[in-house]
């Protein structure tokens, strides 16, 4: 594009949206701004296009996913030839043509990687979230708060959309309001008495796959609250899991696939058949045998895996099951030499990973056949296991446009004019707004004090942190606890951890630790500490100098007035100015001891409505 053409485009842009002058600082001009876009999916594609056409000069975009066939109907930057390629890299290549003079940096990576630390976030003037999962959203929210960078959060579900401006100490953050509690399923239902296809899918995804190829752990989709009422059956299930671990150790052998099949589809089912009380009001399960299915499946080609719209027969599922196990087995064994410190290599389920999806689809359908349940196509299982709601391109486009309109207000530091914006199909208005709320004084994420420490990872211990930093320098008393992303690493009952190196307890460079003052009288607000590494200093641990004191928690009579904390709903009637503005411009804690990693998954959960459609907050 010639400079003259570019100038002409900017001229029309100014006519459309007006000038951002008067500038409140040097970055108020979008052309001089440096912004980060997290997510290159449905909203992300639209946002990238809008940012370029709105004149933003430097855009960094990051996404971990690759392009899938199902993305093409709404993620307009992608074409059929881009399938399996990284979303972020393709988005950069295609969108760069919209405005060649803008700079786009793309990352095919996880935003939670350590290289994307607080200092990196601090280099941006504005961050846009276009994500489809709760865990990543919370991470970006926390990093933006730590870096004191404004965040424009967005999301869509079907016809509904939402845009929220977040700024440290001025507005609510993403975690200031409670999010819906994920749906979970009792362990005995999943492992012993499935009654719906979704139960078989959760079993394959959250139990069988991690036991064989991932990390065996209590998944959030499995509800243990009823364990006490089924103690006998729970003990049997534990024995089954133990036997499966032994089979996993035989993975290099040729008999591995047959051992897995015989264990989960024959022996375990035969045991369930003997529990007559379970089957008084429902048909008993019928186990599958390996040998007969080998004969029945002769002549069925593994290419059946690519037919994701078809509901496979039992024999076809058997073929896909065997083929996917061989693929996953090879990947895991090939990855083992690269595992750190002799740990076992692991794989994780991903809806866009064909090998893992084939395994979950075939395993869940074989289990469904055993219990007389309806089989599902691979396409349907991907939606259900991957927590996808069919997205609507128009909703994504409208939401992305609203993000940019709110961004202009942020660049001018006009937070008083920024709004929470809601798209709704029902109701008197398609677009509703609400004023931004102040921070929630009880928010565990933004209503905290923040400090920074420097550690020598080879020598700093938990005792150094507790005694030298928290008690000596910051004046903490006896009653407090320390936690990180793994769990609680210190409280008065965990003094055995004091001699351990912080690195042994999961405290690493660019990670966060939280200190909770548990004194009965006048406790401090929670302290969030950013950990930085320093190897050129003789000191094992040091606290960054700061004039900011750690405030005390407000007493009841010091809390904000009710009207200031009220989380109101959007108004149906607005003033002319408000209407004109929008139209014209547009967890239980865990303790860590003996160095054990008790990390739990925070993957989204399947939610089911009366029609059987899987619903989740997605882009």
UniProtKB/TrEMBL annotation:
Example of a GO biological process term: protein sumoylation
Residues of the Ubiquitin/SUMO-activating enzyme ubiquitin-like domain: 454-534
Name of the protein in question: Ubiquitin-activating enzyme E1-like
Pathway: Protein modification; protein sumoylation
Residues reported in the UniProt entry to bind ATP: 39-44, 63, 71-74, 87, 132-137
Pfam family, one: ThiF
Organism this protein belongs to: Arthroderma otae (strain ATCC MYA-4605 / CBS 113480)
Alphabetical list of Gene3D superfamilies matching this protein: Ubiquitin activating enzymes (Uba3). Chain: B, domain 2, Ubiquitin-activating enzyme E1, inactive adenylation domain, subdomain 1, Ubiquitin-like 2 activating enzyme e1b. Chain: B, domain 3
Biased composition (Polar residues): 590-604
Keywords, sorted A to Z: ATP-binding, Metal-binding, Nucleotide-binding, Nucleus, Transferase, Ubl conjugation pathway, Zinc
Binding positions for Zn(2+) per the UniProt entry: 173, 176, 443, 446
Start and end residues of each stretch annotated as Disordered: 538-619
Domain THIF-type NAD/FAD binding fold: from-to ranges: 31-445
Basic and acidic residues: compositionally biased ranges: 549-558
Similarity annotation: Belongs to the ubiquitin-activating E1 family.
Assembly notes: Heterodimer.
SUPFAM superfamilies xref list: Activating enzymes of the ubiquitin-like proteins
A GO cellular-component term linked to this record: SUMO activating enzyme complex
Positions annotated as active site in the UniProt record: 188 (glycyl thioester intermediate)
């Amino acid at each position: 594009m010639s400079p003259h053409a570019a100038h002409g485009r900017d001229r029309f842009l100014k006519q459309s949206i007006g000038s951002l002058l008067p500038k409140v600082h040097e970055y108020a001009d979008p052309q001089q701004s440096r912004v980060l876009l997290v997510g290159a999916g449905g909203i992300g594609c639209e946002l990238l296009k809008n940012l370029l056409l709105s004149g933003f000069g430097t855009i960094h975009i990051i996404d971990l996913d690759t392009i899938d066939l199902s993305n093409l109907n709404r993620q307009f930057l992608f074409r059929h030839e881009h399938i399996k390629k990284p979303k972020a890299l393709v988005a950069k290549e295609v969108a760069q043509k919209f405005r060649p003079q803008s700079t786009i940096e793309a990352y095919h990576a996880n935003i939670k990687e350590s290289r994307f630390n607080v200092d990196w976030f601090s280099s941006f003037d504005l961050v846009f979230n276009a994500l489809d999962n709760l865990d990543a959203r919370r991470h970006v929210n926390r990093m933006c708060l730590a870096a004191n960078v404004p965040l424009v959060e967005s999301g869509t579900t079907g016809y509904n959309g939402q845009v929220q401006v977040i700024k440290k100490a001025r507005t609510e953050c993403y975690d200031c309001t409670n999010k819906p509690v994920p749906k979970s399923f009792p362990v005995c239902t999943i492992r012993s008495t499935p009654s719906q296809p979704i139960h078989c899918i959760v079993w394959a995804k959250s139990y069988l796959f991690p036991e064989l190829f991932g990390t065996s752990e209590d998944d959030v989709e499995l509800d243990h609250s009823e364990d006490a009422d089924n103690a006998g059956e729970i003990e049997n299930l534990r024995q089954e899991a133990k036997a499966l671990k032994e089979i996993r150790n035989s993975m290099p052998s040729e008999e591995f696939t047959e051992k897995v099949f015989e264990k989960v589809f024959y022996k375990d089912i035969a045991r369930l058949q003997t529990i007559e009380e379970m089957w008084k009001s429902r048909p008993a399960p019928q186990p599958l045998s390996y040998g007969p299915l080998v004969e029945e499946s002769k002549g069925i080609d593994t290419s059946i895996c690519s037919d994701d719209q078809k509901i496979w027969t039992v024999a076809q599922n058997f073929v896909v099951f065997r083929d996917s196990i061989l693929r996953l087995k090879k990947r895991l064994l090939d990855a083992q030499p690269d595992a750190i410190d002799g740990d076992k290599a692991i794989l994780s389920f991903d809806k866009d990973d064909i090998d893992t999806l084939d395994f979950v689809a075939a395993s869940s359908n074989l289990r469904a056949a055993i219990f007389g349940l309806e089989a599902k196509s691979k396409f349907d299982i991907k939606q259900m296991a991957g927590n996808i709601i069919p997205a609507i391109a128009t909703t994504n486009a409208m939401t992305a446009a609203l993000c940019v309109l709110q961004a202009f207000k942020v660049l001018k530091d006009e937070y008083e004019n920024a709004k929470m914006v809601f798209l709704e199909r029902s109701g008197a208005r398609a677009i509703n707004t609400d004023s931004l709320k102040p921070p929630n004084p009880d928010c565990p994420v933004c209503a905290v004090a923040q400090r920074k420490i420097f550690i020598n990872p080879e020598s700093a211990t938990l005792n150094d942190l507790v005694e030298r930093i928290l008690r000596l320098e910051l004046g903490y008393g006896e009653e407090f606890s320390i936690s990180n992303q793994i769990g609680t690493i210190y409280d008065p009952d965990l003094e055995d951890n004091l001699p351990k190196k912080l690195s042994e307890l999961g405290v690493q460079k660019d990670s966060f630790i939280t200190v909770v003052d548990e004194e009965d009288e006048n406790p401090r607000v929670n302290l969030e500490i950013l950990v930085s590494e320093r190897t050129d200093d003789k000191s094992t641990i040091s606290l960054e100098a700061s004039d900011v004191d750690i405030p005390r928690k407000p007493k009841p009579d010091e809390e904000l007035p009710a009207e200031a904390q009220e989380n109101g709903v959007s108004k149906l009637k607005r003033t002319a100015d408000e209407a004109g503005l929008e139209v014209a411009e547009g967890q239980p804690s865990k303790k860590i001891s003996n160095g054990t990693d008790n990390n739990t998954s925070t993957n989204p959960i399947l939610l089911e409505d009366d029609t059987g459609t899987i619903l989740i907050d997605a882009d």
